[in-house]
Amino acid sequence: MSGVRPPDAVDAILDQWRRERPDLDLGPMGLVGRLKRCAALMQRRLDETFAPFGISGGEFDVLATLRRSGPPYSLAPTALFSALMVTSGTMTHRLQRLEASGWVERVPNEADARSLLVQLTPKGRAMIDRAVEAHVDNERRILADLKPAELAALDAQLARLLATLESSRR
After folding, report:
1. What is the CB neighbour count within 10 angstroms for residue 149?
2. Residues 6+ apart with CB under 8 A from 62
3. Distance between CA 148 and CA 143 in Å, rounded?
4. What is the per-residue pLDDT across 112-150, written as a single tens digit (0 to 9) for each?
């Protein structure tokens, strides 16, 4: 393999910057641009898988978080929005939609009579179980062109980047 790859959309942007600002080191811009573009393109493909289930990516995240929490598949709203790194307003909107669809319900919190928990309904559990299977199959298809060693190397490097970004938030 020669190591030469076809140009991508980020290369065109970098070429423009090189022409306009040849003094800049654009290495970081290329990497971050490719990560952002990959994330946007991947999100589209993920959303296509969620659409037949009548949910958005954000709603999938709520249902999946509840499902993986284990029986009784319930969490406090604050635990949900903290785990998903969204605002309480965003979480409220998602929960209202999921509740109206019959996939979650608010139940009394036995540990704190002043609060409610968000719990998957049996209908919601059945749906998220089907949706997560489709999601995993879709992720496998998205990554199918990469060899196992390439996937492992990419995963390791992204884990390292994520650790760096998370530690710098503190």
Report:
1. 8
2. 80, 84, 91, 94, 95, 98, 104, 118
3. 10
4. 878 899 999 999 999 999 999 999 999 999 999 999 999
Extract the tokens encoding 143.
């990554």
Let me know: does 16 contact 9? Beta carbons within 8 Å: no
3-state DSSP call for residue 105? strand
- The residues pairing with 105 across neighbouring beta strands, listed in sequence order, are 119
Q: Tell me the CA distances in angstroms from 82 to 21, 67, 87, 159, one per residue in order.
A: 41, 16, 8, 20
Q: How would you class 103 by CB atoms within 10 Å of its CB: exposed for 0-12, middle for 13-18, buried for 19 or more?
A: buried
Handedness of CA 11, 16, 18, 24 (dihedral sign): negative
Helices and strands in the chain: count of H runs, count of E runs: 7, 3
Give the predicted TM-score (pTM) of the model: 0.84
For residue 118, report the phi and psi dihedrals to the nearest 5 degrees.
-100, 125
Print the SS3 string covering 40-68.
Answer: HHHHHHHHHHHHHHCCCHHHHHHHHHHHH
- CA dist., res. 80 & res. 69, Å (int): 10
